[in-house]
Design brief:
5 helices; about 20% strand; 8-stranded mixed beta sheet; alpha/beta
Length: about 230
């Protein structure tokens, strides 16, 4: 089951896009299943996201450039935060609940990216290749294979740069299907979630915003605070 707005009901961001600033779309696809309560993972994630959003707001390189959306999967799929410029993001703490419909969440995320792409193109706004951060601490409870194929099609067409992070005991062989073949899945412990968002992701996005036109996947990024598996 998924819970997200029809395109007719969605807040429009088109008016905010009518300038020459090159945007960097970032979509976070986050596991909020019941197991995220273990070791206070959900609380740590909430604190990390709140700090990340505040840090972006004060970043000269990102405050006007980043477009953010958050999709969660815990019992159901939710667009917890529709596409918005960072100053307009209203972050409400995530709640852990239910099973792990990862495939449905990624499918919804791909739809969100399609909607944003239309708005960017209609506004004539330049943008970098979108990034997707997929994070899970368990095994999908739905049929995820078709969603993985959608992601691989976008990778092949240079329309998406995805990264996968597993919080043990994540299903890393599944997460690997959602990233380029030359990218690792990263295993991240609870205590490193904050550094992952507030340091690595923030710093990497700054590099993208500062880069000349090209593929973000070709940038030299620092390693995340996690172990490649």
């Amino acid at each position: 089951m998924s819970s997200h707005e029809n395109s007719e009901d969605r807040p429009q961001i088109g008016a905010e896009l009518e300038n020459a600033i090159k945007r960097t779309p970032l979509i976070l696809v986050l596991d909020t299943s019941l197991s995220m309560e273990e070791n206070n993972r959900i609380g740590i994630l909430n604190n990390a996201l709140a700090e990340f959003i505040e840090a972006v707001k004060t970043s000269d390189e990102l405050s006007d450039a980043l477009l953010l959306s958050i999709v969660t999967f815990g019992g159901e799929v939710r667009v917890a935060s529709p596409w918005a410029s960072i100053d307009d993001v209203v972050f409400e703490p995530l709640v852990a609940n239910g099973n792990t419909p990862m495939g449905d969440a990624v499918t919804v995320a791909m739809g969100e990216l399609d909607l944003l792409r239309v708005e960017l193109q209609q506004a004539g706004t330049p943008y970098n290749v979108p990034w997707m951060i997929l994070m899970s601490d368990g095994e999908p409870t739905d049929h995820w294979e078709e969603a993985a194929e959608l992601v691989q099609e976008r990778i092949a067409n240079t329309k998406l740069v995805p990264f996968a992070f597993g919080i043990p005991p994540s299903k890393d062989d599944v997460l690997r299907r959602f990233i380029p073949k030359n990218f690792p899945v990263y295993s991240v412990e609870e205590q490193n979630i904050k550094a992952l968002f507030v340091k690595w992701l923030l710093g990497s996005l700054v590099k993208v915003a500062e880069s000349s036109p090209g593929k973000p996947g070709g940038l030299q990024l620092s390693a995340p605070p996690a172990i490649p598996v």
